[in-house]
């Protein structure tokens, strides 16, 4: 949302005076306060409380693993349980045992069962055992299994090992969640374009609702008003101001709101709140004041997206937010390339899995990314997000789509990428057809015509009808 970024540059600078701007440098993915000797030719036993760099090898339960995401280990993050951190490798385990099962995946779920499948191991195979932790949940001679008698809306990580008379193979892990969830990941949110009360001649939301049928708005943006204290734009009060009045009007008209935290620039809570607990406390103040259906964390730029210390602080804070507000959906929104999330986005996804953060939806922003054909570029970026989610969680296509969202930019983007009403309709229909669960765009303020007007705050820069993009989004 760089267009909003440019307009907020002066405002952000003023907001940071006195409060201080965060200048924390991005945490290195390979630096560490301490580390064990991690020689590839002598894999040590895995231990909790140890820093493991990317490429480090360990042995756990007679199987070898290679670290694929730098981290400090802890109990519960044993290699077979956290495929986002470790991958099984050859060179250890029992001589003569089968090779590692390939491509573990969830093939179906019910409210009480999870069905798994995998490709056959190399070597002589007697059968396969499916473990949850150290407990053997199934034994089969084939390459599939169904685990039953599970709780509704519960998440389980399974490790599949081939075996023969010589012993067991290294494990291949996959995570699945049973159905029947209420108020949690996978259920669809209404289309909710961003509405920003800080610039761009903000329209009366109830009038827009009446004209378009839209039932929800994403209200932007919660920033720091100094330290770990939240405020609209870092300066307007949570209650009693223009934002609160707009939210009251939306709810009075039968609508709901999502609240967005962060964005490209400004004095954000992530760098200013010193602990996950403090961050969660700041978010809770907003939840208590606003009563949102969704909290959206727009994680961008070097101070949050590329600073892994802050990424982790936000993610761990979101665990607390979800625990305290199980019926409020938690969304993370971040930028993308034309082929999917970049390294920082993949890291965010993998780390949310490793930390056990119950994120309901991962939304990408497919604009300002060198787009040429915005429909196809958006589809390609979304398919890249799907792949990243499947790799991290072991989800099926359908499960990944059900945790995905798209947040576009109507009309002309900062880079002069053109998203017309016809293109936005194509994107909406693709998202609906694939089962995505969130659709938004930046912003209702710009959902007015001004052909040839360029990239400005109160119109789209193209020919269109008033509120045309909002009307399309309402059809999601």
TrEMBL record:
Task: Please verify whether the record's keywords include Signal.
Answer: yes
Annotated Fibronectin type-III domain ranges read 100-185
Q: How far does the signal peptide extend, from start to end residue?
A: 1-21
| Region entry Disordered, spans | 88-109
- List the PROSITE patterns: FN3, TAT
Give the matching PANTHER family.
BIFUNCTIONAL CHITINASE/LYSOZYME-RELATED, GH18 DOMAIN-CONTAINING PROTEIN-RELATED
Official protein name in the record? Fibronectin type-III domain-containing protein
- The source organism is Nonomuraea roseoviolacea subsp. carminata
Q: What is the lineage of its organism?
A: Bacteria, Bacillati, Actinomycetota, Actinomycetes, Streptosporangiales
């Amino acid at each position: 949302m760089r267009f909003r970024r440019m307009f907020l540059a002066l405002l952000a600078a003023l907001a940071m005076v006195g409060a201080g701007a965060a200048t924390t440098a991005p945490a290195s993915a390979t630096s560490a306060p301490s580390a064990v000797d991690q020689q590839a030719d002598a894999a040590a036993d895995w231990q909790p409380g140890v820093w493991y760099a990317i490429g480090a090898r360990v042995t756990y339960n007679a199987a070898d693993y290679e670290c694929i995401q730098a981290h400090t280990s802890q109990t519960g993050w044993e290699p077979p349980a956290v495929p986002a951190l470790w991958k099984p490798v050859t060179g250890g385990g029992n001589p003569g045992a089968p090779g590692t099962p390939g491509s573990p995946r969830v093939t179906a779920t019910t409210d009480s069962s999870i069905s798994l499948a995998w490709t056959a191991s190399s070597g002589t195979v007697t059968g396969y055992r499916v473990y949850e932790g150290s407990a053997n949940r199934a034994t089969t001679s084939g390459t599939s299994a169904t685990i039953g008698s599970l709780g509704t809306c519960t998440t389980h990580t399974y490790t599949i090992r081939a075996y023969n008379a010589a012993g067991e193979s290294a494990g291949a892990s996959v995570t699945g969640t049973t159905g029947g969830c209420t108020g949690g990941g996978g259920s669809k949110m209404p289309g909710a374009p961003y509405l920003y009360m800080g610039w761009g001649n903000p329209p009366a939301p109830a009038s827009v609702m009446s004209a378009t049928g839209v039932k929800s708005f994403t209200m932007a943006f919660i920033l720091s008003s100094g330290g770990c204290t939240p405020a609209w734009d870092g300066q307007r009060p949570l209650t009693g101001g223009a934002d609160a009045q707009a939210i009251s009007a939306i709810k009075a008209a039968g609508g709901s709101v999502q609240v967005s935290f962060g964005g490209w620039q400004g004095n954000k809570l992530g760098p200013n709140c010193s602990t996950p607990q403090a961050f969660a406390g700041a978010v809770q103040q907003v939840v208590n004041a606003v009563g949102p259906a969704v909290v959206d964390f727009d994680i961008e730029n070097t101070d949050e997206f590329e600073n892994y210390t802050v990424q982790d602080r936000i993610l761990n804070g979101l665990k607390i937010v979800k625990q305290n507000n199980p019926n409020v959906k938690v969304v993370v929104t971040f930028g993308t390339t034309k082929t999917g999330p970049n390294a920082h986005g993949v890291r965010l996804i993998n780390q949310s899995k490793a930390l056990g953060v119950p994120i309901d939806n991962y939304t990408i922003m497919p604009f300002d990314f060198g787009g040429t054909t915005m429909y196809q570029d958006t589809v390609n970026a979304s398919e890249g997000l799907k792949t990243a989610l499947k790799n991290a969680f072991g989800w099926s296509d359908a499960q990944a789509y059900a945790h995905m969202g798209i947040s576009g930019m109507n009309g002309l983007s900062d880079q002069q990428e053109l998203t017309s009403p016809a293109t936005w309709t194509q994107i909406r229909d693709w998202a609906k057809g694939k089962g995505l669960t969130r659709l938004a765009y930046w912003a209702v303020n710009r959902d007015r015509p001004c052909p040839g007007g360029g990239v400005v705050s109160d119109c789209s820069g193209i020919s269109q009808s008033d509120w045309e993009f909002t009307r399309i989004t309402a059809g999601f």
